[in-house]
Specification:
Blueprint (H helix, E strand, L loop, with lengths): L1 H34 L37 H15 L5 H20 L10 H23 L9 H4 L1 H10 L9 H10 L10 H8 L8 H7 L7 H7 L20 H6 L3 E4 L9 E3 L2 E4 L2 E2 L4 H14 L6 H12 L3 H9 L3 E2 L3 H10 L12 H34 L1
Parallel strand pairs: 1-3, 4-5
Antiparallel strand pairs: 2-3
Helix pairs in contact: 2-4, 3-4, 3-7, 4-7, 4-8, 12-13, 14-15
Length: about 400
């Protein structure tokens, strides 16, 4: 009797095991989709071969995608100096280092899944890259926030040009490590008493010249749900409720000078969010954009991130796509500059900058579709109004001739 029951028990165990394996398989696929293409090499179609300065770091490599290149050898040494300084603030550097390494070993699998291609670095080397780059970034943030932590002879802070180049490197899509790596390391390392800022606050402070909007307001808005540092800066540009304005009508896009001819007034919109362009009662309101050394790098990498990440709305892509149509000529750019919407670059260079940026967007993902349709309707009604005025004037003249 007992022998007869055993196969049933084995069968139920087998079914349970199959169920567990199935659930595990589904979970692995979900995780793969969740983390895939968070950090990846930018597709060739988004950049020309002579535009490497927008994708490849100039001074420092972060993460595995550009690790080991000879041009970054000097900065690798500077990273180790920063790590030594950071961990040296604890009474037991060896123990602190050991805790960090153990935590990174736990996170290795999750971190590897964040990259859009297989990372060929073996386990210990991969963990070393995460450790070195993560701790370097934390110490870099601390040194900027707390001036007394800087040392004489620090090349990063001694020359403004070096700092600017390094900061630009840290917003390149191909030059990132997962934000959760930074977050976990920040919990484990000794933070000086002079610094009371959170990791997110330190990052916002570091990138404040690149951030769209008031940093203090953004600190309240943000949690810690970022893929990486580029994503953190990207989120500062997003509207609070980023929804696409759907419309069944065909979207027509016009240049600024053509809109002016149609009777549309273009005004500077004093708003903290760059993407908050709106149209009401014949007035197109556009927030100002201060164009500087990092503007094109930032916009290009935002677009690349939105293109590579399926879960990312194409909001900055939509912005650049719209501006490319609004500013097609030197005359269009002059109109924007006269309204103080654009500054920092000559008119012809503004047109050139936006023309060079490659953008592809599906009409269903175009954030400003509804806005463009409103402008189009206004233009059509404006034409009708002009025709009625011309007709009325003609009728008055005809009546005068008859009488």
């Amino acid at each position: 009797m007992e022998a007869e029951r055993r196969p049933r028990r084995d069968a139920s165990t087998e079914i349970a095991q199959e169920h567990e394996n199935f659930v595990l398989s589904v979970r692995e696929k979900m995780e793969k989709v969740s983390y895939s293409h968070c950090i990846c090499k930018i597709p060739d179609k988004l950049f020309n071969h002579n535009e490497e300065k927008y994708t490849i770091p100039a001074l420092v490599s972060i993460g595995p995608l550009h690790h080991g290149k000879e041009k970054f050898t000097f900065m690798e040494g500077q990273k180790w100096h920063y790590v030594n300084t950071l961990l040296g603030r604890t009474s037991n550097m060896k123990a602190s280092l050991d805790i960090c390494v153990r935590k990174l070993k736990e996170l290795e699998g999750r971190a590897r899944k964040c990259y859009g291609e297989d990372v060929t670095l073996e386990s210990n080397k991969f963990i070393e890259v995460m450790l070195l780059d993560g701790l370097f970034i934390i110490e870099l943030f601390l040194k900027l926030a707390v001036k007394s932590l800087r040392r004489r002879g620090d090349i990063i802070f001694n020359t403004h040009e070096t700092f600017i180049r390094l900061r630009s490197d840290l917003i390149l899509l191909e030059n990132q490590i997962p934000f959760f790596i930074l977050r976990e390391l920040f919990i484990l390392v000794p933070i000086p008493k002079q610094c009371s800022l959170s990791l997110t606050e330190l990052a916002l402070h570091f990138f404040r010249s690149m951030i769209s909007g008031d940093v203090q307001i953004l600190q309240k808005k943000f949690g810690q749900d970022f893929s990486h540092l580029l994503d953190l800066v990207h989120q500062s540009y997003l509207p609070t409720f980023p929804t696409v304005q759907h419309s069944e009508a065909k979207t027509n896009l016009h240049s600024a000078t053509k809109l002016k001819a149609l009777g549309v007034v273009i005004k500077k919109f004093k708003n903290d969010n760059l993407l908050n362009i709106n149209f009401f009662d014949g007035v197109l309101q556009v927030p100002p954009l201060n164009i500087n050394d990092h503007t094109e790098i930032l916009l290009r990498n935002f677009i690349a991130m939105e293109h590579c990440n399926q879960n990312c709305s194409k909001l900055v892509t939509s912005y650049v796509y719209l501006i490319r149509y609004l500013v097609q000529s030197k005359e269009d750019a002059r109109l924007f500059c006269q309204r103080c919407i654009f500054n920092g670059l000559e008119e012809e260079n503004i047109v050139l900058m936006f023309t060079k940026i490659h953008v592809e967007i599906d009409v269903e993902e175009f954030y400003y579709k509804g806005l463009c349709d409103q402008i189009d309707k206004y233009g059509i009604s404006g034409k009708k109004e002009k025709m009625l005025k011309v007709l009325a004037r003609f009728c008055r003249k005809a009546k005068a001739l008859i009488t």
